[in-house]
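Recall that a protein's primary structure is simply its ordered list of amino acids. Everything else, from secondary elements to tertiary packing, is in principle encoded there. The following example makes that idea concrete.
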Amino acid sequence: MGNAQRFPEPDFESGYVVPETQTIAPRALSWEYLDVAVLFIALSVMSWFVIKQRSRKGIFWTGIFSIIYFGVFRVGCVCSVGSIQNVTLSLFQADYIIPITVIAFFALPLLFSLLFGRTFCAGVCFMGAVQDLVNIKPVSVPSWVSKPLSFIPYIYLILALLLAASGADFIICRYDPFIGFFRMNATFGMFVFGAVILILGIFIGRPYCRFLCPYGVLLSWMSKLAFWHTTITPSECIQCKLCDTSCPVDAINKPVNLKPESTDKGRNRLITLFVLLPVLILAGGFLASQLHKPLSSIHPTVKLANEIKWEQDHNKKTGTEESKAFHSTGVQVEQLFNDAGNIQKFFYVGSWIGGALLGLFFGISLLKTSVVRRQEDYVPDKGNCVSCGKCYKYCPVLPLTPKGE
């Protein structure tokens, strides 16, 4: 209808004149484009410091900038970690239009991880930068503790994707431990959660990044395929072991000398695990599917249907404000129950797929323990290394210089 009046102007008797309507330019959109530009520049600068300059000081100050800009100034929005949910919702809900800037925030860190490793985690992510800032007395986490905990991000990722795809909730944003601090609106529970993460971060390197962050799963996959990646030494490793004790996230692989008996045991274990892999996938899918009803009850439609069903079963004439609002709309209860049933079916299928994927991930992690390769030097684990550069200053090896210099 363009700019046509939907309703006639009121006839004022006081001589009041209706002011001319002015269309204000969408300033917020310009800020979003600026945010994308800043993200790209920050990723480029950080990658340069990590790969080319090997400068821990440069990494540190880029992280400080990210805290100020993306954390304090932009109060954590748009966030690359939470953008997973927007992308997922756009794939499953045809009426949801995702802004191109959100797609950029989702894709750019993954692209840079594919090229240079997890330079986004190094400090461009303000949540990682905050944890890096407080990590003043790092201690190593035993592998028997870190290995099981590192599986939590996979569970978190699957759950977040399922809830976002159904339109139920954006749990990554809802339970972000730091955004509430920057926005000064954290609930008491989230304030405590964020404080616990920061206190743990004094001793444990980046606890949220390692044991919770769902976006870190995708970054880790990309980083394993990186064309370039940070290295511990600028030239030949002398195996002084100083880097191993300096890494705050325990992401350095130690030298491995193969023995004939170890390869035989590994081969037999590998065959056994290959046989068990389909069992793990089916078991994961079945177990997760049993949770589809409680998970689907998070969805507002299913929650409302359960409330009205309870009212009917107990012959309650007065219900919650939500049920009263629903009855006032005139929508048939049968339609509500039908919609809730379809959502529950969606959760059943999604839980099966998600559980099967978790079983697959768990099986692959077990398979990796059976694949033993010879390794002579200390090298960063390309998937787990967050490119913080803290190992640089501990390495006594000087960079090679061309002859004549």
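The chain has two domains: 31-252, 260-370. The CA atoms of residues 206 and 404 lie 43 Å apart.
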